[in-house]
From TrEMBL:
Protein name: Glucose-6-phosphate 1-dehydrogenase
Pathway the protein takes part in: Carbohydrate degradation; pentose phosphate pathway; D-ribulose 5-phosphate from D-glucose 6-phosphate (oxidative stage): step 1/3
Entry annotated with the keyword NADP: yes
Entry function: Catalyzes the oxidation of glucose 6-phosphate to 6-phosphogluconolactone.
Organism of origin: Chryseobacterium kimseyorum
Recorded name of the encoding gene: zwf
Catalytic residue list: 243
Domain of life where this protein originates: Bacteria
Length: 489
């Protein structure tokens, strides 16, 4: 049930995320009739823009980034809900003005509206804004006010704890929506349905039957315009600590007793807690990092990372990470979970591979036929399907086996798939926390990568750059899985 009326206050409304994701998501929710009956989007920005100028800017961006084509009729309706508001993040008076502005909306609603604060700004401003929100009493009603915070949530475990404590001074945990947009992806959510809505897979979902799990999030893009942010962040913080560990949780979690948000979040924390911590002297054994040099991506010449804008010519920031994790619990004893992610890789492809164990004995051994491993491949993007790979008899007079595939194509059954941000913003408008990260999840995830982070911090990698743009990453990433007789799928 959508909470109404609601005022959505976007800090950083002229930024990249707002233009590519937030406004398109709100617009698509609007045209599908999913926005609250009474709503206002108050777009905050530093510059002295007129409403008209800002709305034109949003319209141009919608034309480029909206999932559904924009029509003049829908735009006319939608734009009436947007107000631009000049605001300085670090000035107390700006928050007083904001208070008055919010009161004005409430007057029109005829009651105190719900407030959804969206912090679409760099991580360094979260504490400033949160303090000001508190001091100016902007979020005075715990039943009605919520805050959405973008990742990265802190830059290590200590700073995440600090931030959680600070937010706790203004907001109850139930009011805090820490976004990890991977959890809003249709195919990631489908893991829950697939695992717990069927009786045929769950009995095989353990160390007795599964040989290894692989999670790959490969990107074609480089750092684009985010050089200075990325230099400080790197792939471990940007992707592994959040997106990849969250996917891992979806694959590895125990069946939740219900779909209640606390229950699902508890089961995910259990997974994070059970991930074996890598001791400092073993980091190089379990984790690999890399940085792209120049190359060719998708037929186009690509610069090396160190030549990108805002990047130091001797940068040590990693743009690729592969890690082998183990989970110390009954279900997953000794099953390696290989995760990898990189920028400027050969192709954009995110997918999960569940590889099943070989048969203990083979009926076909005397025919000296090679049996391919049974695999379940869950394609997250751009393909959105689930493939089961198994052996079958090749039609013909002799008994020859060949690997075949059974495919469920998510996209074919539902072309009108919402963007991750639509799903997550709608959930926030409804007050559903299930797909958002709780404080303990974030802290635990930082703990999982802590020794890797500490070991790499300040280390000069003389081998950087060590993979070509347009490849599948550095050689050591292959060695990491091959040592155990596996290979990246
Ligand atoms: C973001 C990272 O969280 O996710 C980016 O900061 C990355 O570096 C992006 O490119 C990937 O998201 P998607 O949805 O394009 O796979």
């Amino acid at each position: 049930k959508i909470l109404q009326p609601t005022t959505i206050i976007i800090f950083g409304s002229t930024g990249d995320l707002a233009k590519r994701k937030l406004f398109p998501a709100f617009y698509n929710l609007y045209i599908s009739g999913r926005m609250p009956k009474g709503f206002n989007i108050l777009a905050l920005g530093r510059a002295d823009n007129s409403d008209e100028y800002f709305k034109n800017y949003i319209k141009e961006n919608l034309e480029q980034f909206s999932r559904k084509k924009i029509s003049s009729e829908d735009w006319a309706g939608f734009q009436a809900h947007i107000t631009y508001f000049q605001h300085q993040l670090d000035e107390e008076n700006s928050y007083k003005d904001l208070y008055e502005k919010l009161e004005k909306f409430d007057k029109v609603y005829g009651k105190r509206g719900n407030r959804l604060f969206y912090l679409s700004i760099g991580p360094n401003f979260v504490s400033t804004i949160s303090n000001h929100i508190k001091n100016a009493s902007l979020a005075s009603d715990p039943e009605k006010d919520r805050i959405i915070i973008e990742k990265p949530f802190g830059h290590d475990k200590e700073s995440a704890i600090e931030l959680n404590n600070l937010l706790a001074e203004t907001f109850e945990e139930e009011q805090i929506y820490r976004i990890d947009h991977y959890l809003g992806k249709e195919t990631v959510q489908n893991i829950l349905a697939f695992r717990f809505g069927n009786s045929i897979f769950e009995p095989l979902w353990d160390c007795k039957h599964i040989e290894s799990v692989q999670i790959t999030v490969a990107e074609e893009v480089g750092v684009e315009t985010r050089g200075s942010f990325y230099e400080e962040t790197g792939a471990l913080r940007d992707m592994i600590q959040n997106h990849l560990l969250q996917i891992l949780c979806m694959v590895a979690m125990e069946p939740p007793a219900s779909l209640e948000s606390g229950e699902i979040r508890d089961r995910k924390v259990d997974v994070l807690k059970s991930i074996r911590r890598i001791s400092s002297d073993k980091v190089d054994h379990y984790a690999v990092r890399g940085q792209y040099g120049k190359g060719t991506v998708n037929g186009a010449k690509a610069k090396g990372y160190r030549q990108e804008e805002g990047i130091a010519p001797d940068s040590n920031t990693e743009t690729f990470v592969a890690v082998k994790f183990y989970l110390d619990n009954d279900r997953w004893q000794d099953v390696p979970f290989y995760v990898r992610t990189g920028k400027k890789m050969k192709e954009k492809h995110s997918y999960i591979t569940i590889q099943f164990k070989p048969l203990p004995t083979s009926t076909f051994s005397e025919t000296s036929q090679q049996l391919s491993a049974n695999r379940l491949i869950i394609n997250i993007q751009p393909l959105m399907d689930i493939r089961l790979q198994f052996m079958a008899k090749q039609p013909g007079l002799s008994l020859v086996l060949k690997p075949v595939e059974m495919i469920f194509d998510n996209f074919a059954c539902q072309e009108d798939t919402p963007e991750a941000y639509e799903t997550l913003l709608l959930d926030a408008l409804m007050g559903d926390l299930t797909l958002f990260m709780r404080s303990d999840q974030v802290e635990e995830a930082w703990d999982v990568v802590k020794t890797i982070q500490d070991t790499w911090e300040g280390r000069k990698d003389s081998s950087f750059p060590d993979y070509e743009a347009g490849s599948w990453g550095p050689e050591e990433s292959f060695a990491l899985v091959e040592r155990q007789g596996h290979s990246w799928v």
